[in-house]
Write the structure tokens for this entry.
Amino acid sequence: MNKMRLLVLVLGLHLLSCQESTNEKNTNNSPSETKEIPSKDLHTQCNADSLSIRHLDLDIKVDFISKKISGNATWTIQNETHQKFIRLDTYDLTIDSVLVDGAKTSFVLYPMVHHLGQALEIPIQKNTQQVKIVYSSGSNARALQWLTAQQTLGKKQPFLYTQSESIYARSWIPCPDGPGIRFTYNARVQVPKGLLALMSAENPQQVSDSGIYHFKMDIPIPAYLMALAVGDLRFKSVDARTGVYAEPPMLDKATLELSDMGRMVNTAESLYGPYRWGRYDVLVLPPGFPIGGMENPKLTFATPTIIAGDKSLVNLIAHELAHNWSGNLVTNATWNDFWLNEGFTVYFERRISEAMNDKGYADMLWELGYQDLVATIDDLGKDNRNTWLKLDLTGRDPDDGLNDVAYEKGALFLKLIENNVGRARMDTFLKNYFAAHAFKTITTETFLSYLQQNLIKGDAALEKKLNIQAWVYGPGIPNNAPRADMERFNKVNTTLQSFLKGTSAQDLTTQGWTTHEWLHFLRQLPDSLSVSKMKELDDNFHFTTSGNSEIGAQWFIQSLKTNYQTAYPKMDVFLSAVGRRKFLEPIYETMIKTGKKEMATATYNKYKQNYHPLAQMTLDKLVLAK
């Protein structure tokens, strides 16, 4: 072992002393002789807590043949504390060269750390202003899904999109990949001619003849909000500041479905202050998108599964819009504080939905969310540490915290506060909270301090009623959890009982039911329901062939439980096309729980390549685990 390799090894071990190391990989060139400065965010290896990383100039090319993004990322920094190096996050990137203020320099790519990737360390001087990394993405880039033309709706051109949340931006950009680190960016992106490129920035509305696009985001954002999509896309306006991007065969249908977007933005502003991001557009992606929506600034990425034809699922857009206050405007400092993004956003989403519909509509959303939370906690265990709002994700992938606890328990906590202080006081508090913390990051503890100072204000009786400790630092669902009015669902329950007691499906009172009433009905069906009863429901309400993804997915789960095999061919088609984890995971899990493991394995192996790498990560553990 020569001296250089020994030095690299010693520094690598020093860097990884508090973290799990896997899949060691050799470093490049000589390392900087400096000590590790521990970061409060355990999911980034960047040292942005010691120097200022202000701006990114990104110049990349998208190559569909090699399935790689390549180019350079130039970071503008300010080294006020005279650090001897800058350290950035990477995952499966090939680093070709590094330049500091225009001069080529050495660098170190440390060994792989489980979940976190490889730290890229670059020596700098106290007056260093720019660090340029020439690089290319790898075959295991977790953020990227490369689709062939056949995997798209139009079947004419390939497609690429990113999903950077939570810590996957580092797989396509060497970056400070932590939610508490904000920066502005400009980008130049070259794509095959005829394709449109879009980012979480100011976007074009027409295809460029050259295949070269320029982007600008002048509001500082964290890396998880970096986004890119490239494909056969077109744009259509909804109103002066909102519009829809989609593949041509989807564009008119999606624009009609989302025609209330402008009113939605106005409603949100009336609740909690101005929308600060300029335009609000939505990109409807191909069906392999692994989540419902991603709140990328200026351009929400959305699953096509919300396009039901009757606007019944567009509350997901209300959710992503609300993120432009809770998440994009005021951001969780670490992934342990994730509920500050999602809990606030679910609460805000429900307020938008209530304002645009009525209280009864919102009550149904609250109750379905409560059912989801109960199911999640039953699965995790009511005393499980993962059911706290304040998470502890030490040594784990932050995606482990992406469940209904952060979303629904967080929202219920805010609903509890509203119920105890009144809606007017709650709205004033939240409006001031968003204004006071705009474009900043926040921890759970900082929020609780703000809550004490600006709402509770020493009111011991109110503090006792809220029982904050149990909600934030305790497991399960506290016994003071609010419940929604069940008026509309009580009618559904009555109809269901009538059916189970012998009333024919065609005689059930279901006129005017929304998707939410049908979901509640289907969720309450007994697992022991006979095949003949399933067929009767299907013959009358056509669940197997439903174009509504929420209803279809719930029906397929019920069909697996009751062995209603008539639905299986359509379920197979659904699983071949839809990549949303919300639907995939429970369907595959139900196959396994009902003794159909061979079906699950065969189906997953057949359609795995249609799913995003993040969905594959989840399903590999579920379906392929021995």
The domain at 325-485 is CATH 1.10.390.10 (Neutral Protease; domain 2).
